[in-house]
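Lab notes, practical 5.
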Amino acid sequence: MALKIEVADLGLPALDALDVDALAVFVGPERPLQGLAGFADWRMCGGISRAIRSGVFGASLDEALLIPSGGRMHPARIFCFGLPPGVPLAPDAFLRASRTACEAMAKAGSDAFATAFPPYAGDLSTACRLWLEGSLVRPVRRQVLLGEARVLQRELTAARAALGVQVDVVAPPSRVEMPPRARALPHIGAVIR
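Output from the prediction step:
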């Protein structure tokens, strides 16, 4: 099966537009939650934070939690993966976290999931290569990676070429910009006599 990775900018608009069956969220020791974990927690009305405060989820290494979205988000399932205390992660810990999340998504029968990279101490090109290595152990059909979309697309394409693997990296749609207003036309709200 060929893996397809789509990229999108991280933010509430992208989170609201997701067309996936699951969301994989990396939760580190920072409070309040940051990045994708913070956005997902916001949409879940504090559901991840409540699980942490109540002690149901400690967000520690090798700990995972499944939360149903209850219709608050399009993905029906929110998978939370704990991170080790040493955030940002070293390369071996980053690879382990990515492999754990991707394998869990495959085992859970996910056809398409969205996620963002866990915090990484190195450069983005190495993170993309490690992510591809972790993803290809047991690939799902489609992933949506949230972050800086154009940069992710460029670095994932380079990592795919360096590894020599067959992965489709889909760029985000280009923005459509309106042409500048003609000088002969009055500006909006102008009074013409």
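Observations recorded by the TA: The two ends are 67 Å apart (CA to CA). DSSP finds six helices and seven strands in the chain.
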